[in-house]
Amino acid sequence: MSSQANKMKNGKTVGITGASGSLGKELTKLFRQKGYKVIGFTHSKTDSELNHESPNEWIKWECGKESRLKKHLKKIDILILNHGIYNLSRENSNFENSIEINALSKFKFLNLFEDIAQNNQSFIKKEIWINTSEAEILPALNPSYEISKSLIGQLVSFKKNLLDKDSKRKFIIKKIILGPFKSKLNPIGIMSPQFVSRKIFDLANSKRYLVIISPNPLSYLLFPLKEFLNFLYCQIIYKYK
User: Fold this and answer.
1) Which CATH number fits domain 3-240: 3.10.150.10, 2.30.250.10, 3.40.50.720, 3.40.50.300?
2) How far, in whole angstroms, is CA 221 from its chain's centroid?
3) Which of 86, 145, 233, 240 does the annotation list as catalytic?
4) Which one-letter DSSP state was computed for residue 125?
């Protein structure tokens, strides 16, 4: 089946933040090949080329100004939050930037997209896939990165478990735990971005909330346990609030 035929078949639009990065580029190519329209969000001032492997549309944005993207987010069926930084500096500004970009920015996107989903009249449910990291609970030899990933991991877990019934009917959250993959930020990563992008597409299209892509067997034990404990905690909150 041709790409155009696929597009007419599924008719979905995918938004990808960090679309100019190694994984973002591979996700873009894969979704384009599968017939999706792709909107790429980037901080870069140089990424605007349009071809068969690029997003169909580029959107420039800045952290802290996510609310300005609402009109663009309304056009999206699946939003993949893939942006982030990895900086080893010990400066306080690095901790602030890591928390802002890796955690708070993604949480703002999550809340914006949830609001859009509540008013969505389409029969297609809005979905958001949030790429986090094993650094959420495992060491990454980078304190600022670990703190920011732990924060967004907790925020996503609580958001998922505290959704009301009406929200669950209109809004799907998927959490993707990534192990080390090769990129400009991590040139010694074990997995290739091509491999990771295929796994994200295959696994996140399932009904599972938690998707783990890692060579570390511990991740497949620890993260489901953590999510289960968060679920129980939220059930207690519901019962005794």
Assistant:
1) 3.40.50.720
2) 22
3) 145
4) P
